[in-house]
Amino acid sequence: MRIPRQASPRRKRAAKGRPAPGAWEALEAIAGDVSGGASEVARALLAWGESWSAGAPGTAREATVGLERLARRQAALAPVLRIANDMLVEFDRFDAHDEAALRAAVGKIGGRWRARLDEAQATLRLHLRRALGSAPAIYTYSASSTVQGAIEDHFAGGAWFRVVVSESRPGCEGTRLAAALAARGIPVALGTDAWLWGAIEEEGLLVLGADTLLPTGWVNKRGSRALALRARERGVAVVCAADTGKFLPPALAALPRSYERDPVEILADPPPSLAIANPYFEEVAWEALDVLVTERGPTRPRDLRSGDIPVARTLRDAKIQ
């Protein structure tokens, strides 16, 4: 997650006289976030919902269009899709002209989801820390806030181990994770993404986060499947850590999802004959996993199944792409 630079006093004074961004602009910024993980982007959406509920600028129409667009662009991040869908379902229930009722409904949804995520996050970190046990090495990929928190807690509690992580291109969030862990005194080895595949040895755990949990597997950054298969070959257990808010019920899981991101991250202004692929995410089958850790503790994937939920009309009609 990018850390914003501190604004200068002059910039602060200039911003004071500038109107706050409307619903469209605020939701567009969240929709365009490619550096935050599922939890971070979900919390940004919750912050917008709480702000809009309290009277921030933006009409109900702007909010509807912004939420639909955000759901399409961030459909690979399950909690973001679920929160946006819950808000849009309320827009289906109320008259679009009853803006006060819509704002109140969005605020209630935001409050419920924030309470759920806060409670799940604290418990999940505790369960994941227990799963780390006495492993001498923790291999990880990309940057999960849950994995980072559990590693920091484990080290602060007296455990001794090393972390092996790769840079995680093109966003290089793995590099930022390595720097954050090393700043706490944790021994860290950082290398390229190709290097990590060969660095997995016979002792330790491969610990990955997840952006989405599906009936058939989990979604994480591209390259996770190859690392999981390599770990199994080397006798290294594969652990996935995610709260159950990342599970997509059948109706939402059935909506199309795009795992591609902007090709300009790979190469700006390519010649016309050059096709660029920039897939951020991929699905990894449950068969490649040893342990799924949720806020419930070690969890069988089949126990994630839950009743279906209503899907907002605008998402059914638009068909997320």
What structural category arises from helix and sheet content? alpha/beta
**Name of the level-1 CATH class of the largest domain:** Alpha Beta
Count of helices?
A: 12
Total separate domains: 2
Based on CA atoms alone, the radius of gyration comes out at: 20 Å
Order of helices and strands: HHHHHHEHEHEHEEEHEHEEEH
CATH superfamily of the largest domain: Translation initiation factor eif-2b, domain 2
Reported CATH architecture of the largest domain: 3-Layer(aba) Sandwich
Terminal residue distance: 24 Å
CATH-assigned fold name of the largest domain: Rossmann fold
Question: Mind summarizing the main beta sheet?
Answer: 7 strands, mixed
**Low-confidence blocks of residues:** 1-19
Strand portion = 5-15%
Structure description:
The chain has 321 residues and is an alpha/beta fold. The protein has two domains: 20-120; 122-307, Translation initiation factor eif-2b, domain 2 (Rossmann fold, 3-Layer(aba) Sandwich), CATH 3.40.50. 45% of the residues lie in helices and 12% in strands. The chain has twelve helices and ten strands. Strands 3-2-1-4-7-9-10 form a seven-stranded mixed β-sheet. Strands 5-6-8 form a three-stranded antiparallel β-sheet, with helices on one face. Strand 9 and strand 10 form a beta hairpin. Helix 3 packs parallel to helix 5. It starts with 8 loop residues before the first helix and ends with a helix.
